[in-house]
Every structure is written in C-alpha cells, then in structure tokens.
Amino acid sequence: MKKFTKIAISNEEDLIMGKSLFPVTCGNNLTIGAGKVYPEINFTLPTMMITKETIPEVKKHYSEIMDNILNRSKILNIPGLVVEFEQLPPMTDVPEWGAEITELIKKELDKFYVETGIPNALRVTVLDLRDADHPPLLRTGIASEKTISGFELCAQAGADILSIESVGGKEVHDQALMYGDLHGIAASLGILSYRDMGWLWDNITSIAKKYGCITGGDTACGFSNTAMQLAGQGMLPNILAAIDRAASAPRSLAAFEHGAIGPSKDCAYEGPIIKAITGYPISMEGKSSCCAHFSPLGNIAAAAADLWSNESVQNIRLLSGTAPEAFMELLAYDCRLFNKAIESNNALELRNLMVESDVEHSVEALILEPNVVIEIAKAIVNKESGYEKTKAAIETAYNSIDVSLSNNKISLSNTEIEWMKKIEEEISAFSKTEEEAVEYLEMMYGTFFSSQAYGL
Amino acid sequence: MNELLEQLAICIERGKVNLQSPFPVDLKGQEGADELTKRAIENSIPAEVILNESLMVGMQKVGDKFEEGKAFIPDMLIAAKAMNAAMVHLKPFFESGEVELKGDFIIGTVAGDLHDIGKNIVRMVLTGGGWNVIDLGTDVKAEKFVATLKEYPNAFIGMSALLTTTMMQMEVTTKAIKEVSPATKVFVGGAPLSQEFSDRIGADGYFPDPNKFVKYLSQAI
Q1: Nearest-CA distance B24 → chain A (Å)
Q2: Per-residue pLDDT tens over the stretch B103-161
C-alpha cells in the first residue's frame, strides 16, 4: 500500500488544468497531464433493452457512435482523445458482451490512429454489480466474480485504462445521507468504503499489471454525486452535499493507495483533491456534461482537469447530427480554449475566472476552490486511517464554509444555516475511534451491511 | 387541540423521536414522540384521535415546509422516524381494527436496475404518511410485482428506474399487472422518466416529487 504523507501540489497556483506532476502515457501514444487537456467522450444507448436478441443492435449503436465521434474528431483536428466505454448492467452481468464491445471500440481507435496519427486511448469502466445482494457480499459471491471477470475480459480485449464507480459502503451511506446523519456518512465513507476500495483496487491493479493496462481510478459518484443531485432538486441541504464531497476524497484516494495512477474518473468531482495529494492526472466533467445531469460546478470543475468529459449522452438524433457527435464537438472546442490558454500563459487567469464564476453561486463549488482543495488535501494526508482522514476532510470543509459565510463570500438560506448548526453539533459528537464508529454503524445501520464484506 | 397532542405534533414535525434523541438541539433532554404517545394512550385519548389530530398534523406540517423549500428530505424522514416511534404504541389498535392505515403500496426498482435511493425516499415518505408499504427491493421482475399484488389485491404499485436501458422494463411490468388486474393503479418514477413516457406505457402517473405523490395518493383513496 502506497502512503501519501504529504501533498504533491502544495501551491494552489500549480493546481491547474492540463498539468500534473506524473503524466500518464497510454493507448495509442497518448500522454495525459503533460500540458494539454484532451476530451474524454462518453456515450450510452438510447431507450432500449439489452438482451441476447438485441446485442447485434447494441453493437450497431456502438459502431455508429464511434464512426461519428471519430469523424468529428478528425474534422476538428483534436490533439488527442480518450473514449470511455462505461458498461451498462447487462454488459458486466454477461462479461463477454462487455468484452466484445471493448474489442469493437478498440479496433476503431487503433484504425483511427493509423489513419490520422491522433493519439488516443480507451477507458473501460466496468459496472460494479456487487450491491446486487442485500446486504452486499462485495468480496464473495457471483456478483463479485462477474465484476472482477468484467475487468479481466475487458483488459484482455484491449482496454487501455481500467476504472469503476465502486459501491462499497453505499448501502449505509445512502441511508445516512437520507437522514442527514453526518456521523453515519463519515463512518460509511471513511471505514466501509475505504476498506472496500483497498480490497477492490488491489484486484484491479493486479489485473492491469497482467495485461499492461493503466489503473485509472474510481469515483464517489454513487455517494457525493447522489448528494449533489438530491441537493440540486431541493431534497438535501447544499451544505450537506458540499461536505459529503470533501468526505468522499479519502475513499477515492484509497484507489491510488492501492495502485491507481490516473487519470481518475470524470464524475469524481473530488478529483482536484486527489490531484493535489497524488500529483496524478484527473478527468473532470462540468457544464458540458449537462446532457447527463445538472450541477452547480459547471466551470470550476475544469480548473484542474487533464481530461474533460461529457459524462454520458444517449445515441439519439439532434438537428446537427447524433448527440455523441455533437458533444464531441462541444468538448473539442472547450479543450481548444483550455489549451490555447495554456500555450499563451493565460491558464491561471482562465482558471481563476472559472473558479470565481461558480464559487459565488454555490457552497458546493467552494469545496473545489483551489485554496480550499489544498487545505482539505493537507488535512487528509496528516491523518493515518481512512476514518481519521474522512473526519479531517469534513472538519476542514466545514471550517472553510464557515469562514466564507462570515466573510460574506457565499450566502446560504436560513434553512441551510439551520443545517450548519446541526452539522457543527454532529462534528463535535463524532466517534473518537474507528472501533466506536463501527459500533455506531452496527447500531444504526446493522441490517444494511455485512461486517464480513469489509473484513471487519 | 389538547396540549399533549400539540406537543406530540411538534415532536413529529421536528423529528424528536424520544428522550435520548440529541436532535433537534433545542429539544435536547425533553420527551419525544415515543414517550408522549405512550402518555396520550395512558390518558385515554383514542388512538384515532392521536393519529389524525397529532401525528398526521405533524407530518403534514413538515411536508408543507418541504414544499415551500423550508425543509429537506432528511427533515421529513426524521419526522417519519418519530412517527414510527409513536406508531409502535398504536399498533395494537391497528391490529384490533380500531384504526386503519391508508392502504397498501407495493414498491420496487424494475428488473435489471440496482438503483434504489429514489425508491427508498418514496417508501419512507409513504410510511410516514400512514401507508403500509411492501418494498420488493431492486431488480424486481414483473412476475414478482404480480405475485405480490395477489397477496395485496387493493394495493397501489410504484416502480422506479434510473437507466434508459431498464425503463422499458416498466412497460413490461405495467402490462403484466394490468393484464391480471386492470383497475390497479401503477405509478412510475426515476430520473430519465416523464409523464409522456408514463402515458405511453399505460401507467397511471409519473411523480418526480415524493411529497406531492403522497398527497395525491391520499386524495385518490
């Protein structure tokens, strides 16, 4: 296990788009995080069922998507490209289907590289099926076997980068989030998720080594993005979603402690904290992923991005062409602007504009402000265990929000202010030790999780 | 309203479960829904009066605050938790038939889909709203919905899906339900859905807001 005891990027001005301390070279001669931001295009199927009978149609969709996005990439003369194939449940449930589509996409990318010389890579994100059981078994059982097999077969079929949106601890985090139980959130992320990430990424790293793939990283999508979406609909306090984001960073860091080297997953909005700690490149998504979901982080998300993604878009017709092709164009133009800013030494100015334009509107954006990111990153590396790291991230995020409120840098509604008080009270009542926190989880959420699944 | 019932309604609205509950901070150390309901029964207040004039009043208030943007889902669920603590004491009166729940509601995430946070929120708001909820979990096949309907023939049914590749399972399930019981009302929810989709698959409604849905159901019975 690799330990990060100090942060790699300590000067907030160095936490910037397109530049990482440890660039990653992969796929067809693509180096990520070495001075350019590249598009990472993602797509999904239109409304249809995936069955044995529809698999030929499914493949036809992926072929059409690849033809269209590669054609657009060539016309716009992009400097490089990552294609993400994010699996849908049946594609991991029948891992051979996932592998067949991986092979299909990889062949297209290889052909494209020969024809155009444009560097590219394929990220395959295997679906984490392991929460199919209640409580999830995670390390054993058929769902776990299929998930691991999904990695093995896709690595064999040509995946360049391996990733996952893992779900360990989600069964408890979901409950805690719905009740606004910050103690439960801290313990589920800092103990359960953190432990599961260690186990899972040891396995992924070993498969990646066997096939020469890059270990991209994970995301707290099922955790903090759930919080962000619920907050966006007025169902959760924004302040809770903001703190949940900071709290998720140690569990996503665990992937890097267990072999990941980036680029981390696009929907991991905690990415800048990971980049500050590890120095590895990250993928991010913001305004150009509004085809998949809304967020209050549209501009700020790009501040430290090395890849810039659209998250996902259905293969449907728009006036211009197909939706994946249209979003390929959108990402290409976004990246042109980022790269021109880097080339002309205006990157910091552009970054600051993107940061400032969002922070004044959202407490969730405040957590991604580079100086706040650095503070949270420092707090995390100063602590030993996953639970201690998570508590430190929460406390630092809370203090940053509190100071910004006092300085009138951000404003919150009275209803949100009430939650600030509740959160302050909860932080002061956190369990002191991991053992006490596990006892708390067992008392509150014992029916939702299995201790054995986490090696407890 | 009787002072005790008034206090109890406040405990429900603000999610004060029992004496030990640390929240809300300003009610710390005071009795909660658990103790006050017990006392109301000991004071011979009829169970139906406790339910309708106190517990439901508290739930209604927090629901209204939610609609006005002055409360969040956790506020409603903590209120529902306080309500459940009170209901434990009222259970014997339900079993004897003295007081009735609003009805049965079967809920589940459709086949092939493992997402359940939206479904769980609806379940908890329904329970807090006085419904008997039968939660079938995730990845629920049409046959399971139909089999459960046979056990609860007067139930309403709710389905959720998050993926464009699983929402079509809603059509399969709705058809299967309507085939055996055309009068059964089927509702759908989930991020990629719309009223138009609900109409197209023959369901009886799409609701993006759990509180509005529970209100709608209460008026529908």
Answers
A1: 8
A2: 999 999 999 888 888 898 899 888 888 899 999 999 999 999 999 999 999 999 999 99
Evaluate whether A218 touches A201 at the Cβ level (below 8 Å): yes
Closest partner CB to B71 (pick from A45, A233, A415): A415
User: Can you say how many angstroms the Cα of residue A246 is from the centroid of all Cα atoms in its chain?
Assistant: 13
Q: For chain B, say whether A171 makes contact (Cβ under 8 Å).
A: no
Question: Chain A to chain B, count of Cβ pairs less than 8 Å apart?
Answer: 88
Domains parsed from chain B with CATH numbers:
3-95 (1.10.1240.10), 104-220 (3.40.50.280)
Q: Using 50, 70 and 90 to split pLDDT, how confident is the model at B208? A: confident
Number of domains in chain A: 1
Q: Do A47 and B168 make contact, defined as CB atoms within 8 angstroms?
A: yes
User: Best residue in A179, A238, A419 to probe B by mutation, most B CBs within 10 Å?
Assistant: A179
Q: Is residue A7 part of a domain?
A: no
Q: Answer whether A403 touches B (CB < 8 Å).
A: no
Report pLDDT for B115: 84
Q: How many CA atoms lie within 13 A of A40 on its CB side?
A: 35
Chain A interface includes B62 (CB < 8 A): no
B167/A425 CB distance under 8 A: no
CB distance from A447 to chain B under 8 Å?
A: no
List phi, psi (to 5°) of A216: -70, -60
Check CB contact under 8 Å for A179 and B112.
Answer: no
In a domain, A4, yes or no: no
Please tell me the distance from the alpha carbon of residue B221 to that of residue B217, in angstroms, as a whole number: 6
Contacts 24+ apart (CB under 8 A), A422-429: A422/A180, A422/B23, A422/B24, A422/B25, A423/A182, A423/A239, A423/A240, A423/A243, A423/A398, A424/A398, A425/B22, A425/B23, A425/B25, A426/A181, A426/A182, A426/A183, A427/A182, A427/A391, A427/A394, A427/A395, A427/A398, A429/A183, A429/B22
User: How do A214-217 and A283-285 pair as beta strands?
Assistant: unpaired
Write the pLDDT tens digit of every residue in B31-56.
999 999 999 999 999 998 999 899 98
Distance from C-alpha of A244 to C-alpha of A269, rounded to nearest angstrom? 11
**Chain A residue whose CA is closest to B78:** A179
Residues near B207 by Cβ (< 8 Å), separated by ≥ 6? B187, B189, B213, B216
Q: Does B114 touch chain A (CB under 8 A)?
A: yes
Range(s) of the domain holding residue A27: 12-454
Q: Would you call B138 an interface residue with chain A, using a CB distance cutoff of 8 Å?
A: yes
Interface predicted TM-score (ipTM) of this complex, two decimals = 0.91
d(CA A79, CA A73): 9
